[in-house]
Amino acid sequence: MNTTLVFGGSGQLGHCLQAVANRISFEGIIFPPEGEANILDVEALTILFEKHKPAYSINCAAYTAVDKAEDELDAARKVNRDGAENLAKLCTKFNCTLIQISTDFVFEGNIPKLLNEDDAASPISVYGLTKLEGEQAVTANASKHYTIRTSWLYSEYGNNFVKTMLKLGADRSELNIIADQVGTPTYAIDLAGAILHIVNNDNHQYGIYHYSNEGVTSWYDFAVGIFDIANVKIKVNPIKTSQYPTKATRPKFSAMDKSKIKSTFNLSIPYWRDSLIACIKELR
Ligand SMILES: NC(=O)C1=CN([C@@H]2O[C@H](COP(=O)(O)OP(=O)(O)OC[C@H]3O[C@@H](n4cnc5c(N)ncnc54)[C@H](OP(=O)(O)O)[C@@H]3O)[C@@H](O)[C@H]2O)C=CC1
Ligand SMILES: Cc1cn([C@H]2C[C@H](O)[C@@H](COP(=O)(O)OP(=O)(O)O[C@H]3O[C@@H](C)C(=O)[C@@H](O)[C@H]3O)O2)c(=O)[nH]c1=O
Questions:
Q1: Alpha-carbon Rg of the chain, whole angstroms?
Q2: Helix or strand or coil: residue 207?
Q3: Which CDD domains does the entry link to (predicted)?
Q4: Which residue, by CA, sits nearest to atom 9 of ligand 2?
Q5: Domain limits, the chain
Q6: Catalytic entry in 63, 127, 209, 220
Q7: Catalytic site residue 187?
């Protein structure tokens, strides 16, 4: 039986992988505690690889605080680039396939079209830059890798936009939400299912893939959908990016084309609103 090691298992996607692996009785998946699986600690990682001899490693570990990263380039780069590079080198040494998770924020997002894997990445934030450097480190150092770019993750676990909206909706009567940033929300449970599907149906077509839910929306329409589905009465005002100043600049348009992952792995992807309904049902 193959062993799969998950790094960053205590984060949002890590929790979703645990939930889906349990649900589908996925065998041989291990979630080592962060104390034993710090992706910056090559010695500890080597011990783990020697012990478990994994066929797959899934890297969910990341520095994900987008605004904070603007003041913490070194800290973000350490985890997002150096950590990914450490895992890539060990995977090559131990003949393991690395599944690296990346982001739509590697794109500048100035062209209103569905982005595919060959479109040029040109990040406009420190977080996006360090995630792109992580992708490049993986491509350069892992002989077998699937690098999956995803976007706007949410779930019942960790911190995310859906939970923030529900929290704010409980004690505010009005909210201003940016309407001129467009992309696709992704239920992290769906992504976790897709990752385990790839492990189960590995056809060695290594490289970069895009995965989000289907459809395109703005943060404003996403928020309206959240309150509508959760039956929360609140006034939501559409605003421009310039009316909601943040440290990091975010792409205006970062919806991705998923044709490659769907055809390569025979995957079907749920529409974003259907998955949002499923998540809110879990949350309630
Ligand atoms: N969240 C989102 O909207 C999106 C996320 N992504 C990508 O998806 C992946 C998963 O994101 P998500 O689960 O939401 O992120 P989280 O921030 O929820 O989880 C990241 C996890 O990584 C852990 N971590 C940080 N540094 C290290 C380290 N040195 N060694 C081991 N673990 C570490 C964190 O632990 P601790 O909390 O203790 O620091 C945390 O548990 C990331 O690669 C992210 O860049 C892509 C698009 C959208
Ligand atoms: C809370 C709030 C946010 N917003 C806007 C700010 C921002 O443009 C957008 C989302 O804000 P958040 O800070 O929740 O999301 P953010 O952390 O920017 O989300 C990103 O995280 C990283 C990790 C990724 O990889 C990306 O794909 C993306 O999911 O909503 C409002 O307009 N009004 C509000 O009240």
A1: 18
A2: strand
A3: dTDP_HR_like_SDR_e
A4: 219
A5: 4-160+186-214+254-270
A6: 127
A7: no
Q: Could you please state the CATH topology (level 3) that the domain comprising 4-160+186-214+254-270 is classified under.
A: Rossmann fold (3.40.50)
Q: Which three-class secondary structure state does DSSP give residue 237? A: strand
User: Which pair of tokens denotes residue 68?
Assistant: 């904070």
**C-alpha distances in Å from residue 46, one per residue of 40, 78, 136, 144, 175:** 11, 18, 22, 18, 48
Q: Is 178 in the pocket of ligand 2 (CB under 6 A)?
A: yes
AA identity, residue 77 = R
The model's pTM is 0.98
ipTM above 0.90, yes or no: yes
Which amino acid residue places its CA nearest to atom 3 of ligand 2?
A: 177
Residue 146: beta bridge partners? 99, 207
Q: Where are the beta strands (DSSP E) in the chain?
A: 4-7, 29-30, 56-59, 97-103, 145-150, 153-154, 174-178, 182-183, 186-187, 207-210, 217-218, 235-239
